[in-house]
Write a structure and sequence with these properties.
- The protein has 109 residues and is mostly helical.
- The chain has 5 helices and no strands.
- α4 packs across α5.
- The longest helix has 23 residues.
Length: 109
C-alpha cells in the first residue's frame, strides 16, 4: 500500500474513533440552520462539535479554518464552502457569549 493511501486509511480510522467517542460523550448539537446537517457531516465525522462551539472567530478566521479543514480532508462541496463560513461566523463570532460546557453527573458532586 502506498504511503498516501496508508495515511488516508489511518486518518479515516482515527476519524471513525473520534466519531464513536462523540456519540457516547453527549457532544453539543450545532445550532439550527440551513447548512447544519452539512456542517455536522463535514465536521463531526472527524471531531466532536465541542471543538466548533467553543471557538469565537471572525468571518475571515472561520474562512481560514474551513479551508484548513478541507485541506486536511473534510468533504465539503465548493458550493457549500461560503455557506459554512457564514453559518459558523453567524453562530460562533467573537461577540457571541462564550460556550459553557455541560457538567457531567460525576463533576456535580
Amino acid at each position: 500500500m502506498s504511503k498516501p493511501k496508508l495515511l488516508a486509511l489511518c486518518i479515516l480510522i482515527a476519524c471513525l474513533g473520534a466519531f464513536a467517542a462523540e456519540q457516547s460523550a453527549g457532544a453539543p448539537e450545532l445550532p439550527p440552520g440551513a447548512i447544519q446537517n452539512k456542517a455536522r457531516t463535514a465536521c463531526t465525522t472527524c471531531h466532536d462539535a465541542h471543538i466548533i462551539v467553543q471557538q469565537r472567530l471572525s468571518k475571515a478566521a472561520w474562512g481560514k479554518e474551513v479551508d484548513k479543514m478541507i485541506k486536511w480532508g473534510a468533504i465539503v462541496s465548493p458550493s457549500d464552502r461560503d455557506a459554512l463560513v457564514e453559518y459558523f461566523s453567524a453562530n460562533f463570532a467573537p461577540d457571541k457569549p462564550p460556550y459553557v460546557a455541560q457538567r457531567s453527573a460525576s463533576s456535580k458532586r
